[in-house]
Amino acid sequence: MSIDRAVLAFAGTVILLSLALSQWHSPYWLLLTAFVGANLLQSAFTGFCPLAIILKRFGFRPGCAFE
């Protein structure tokens, strides 16, 4: 799995988890959803993604977005 796909899978999982937690526990979990969305948006323009850096250190192969 490339870094690009791993970042998207992780972001999708965190968003779905935070949406579920906002329904079961507290609506403040939607702040996590907003944070992930904002991070995805800024990484689209800047190319900087902290998760991509971590995954590269773990040996994931880079895709075309995070080379």
UniProtKB/TrEMBL annotation:
Pfam families: YgaP-like_TM. Signal peptide: none annotated. Residues 2-56 form the Inner membrane protein YgaP-like transmembrane domain. The chain crosses the membrane at residues 32-55. Gene3D superfamilies: 6.10.140.1340. Keywords: Membrane, Plasmid, Transferase, Transmembrane, Transmembrane helix. It comes from the Bacteria. This is Sulfurtransferase. It comes from Methylocella tundrae.
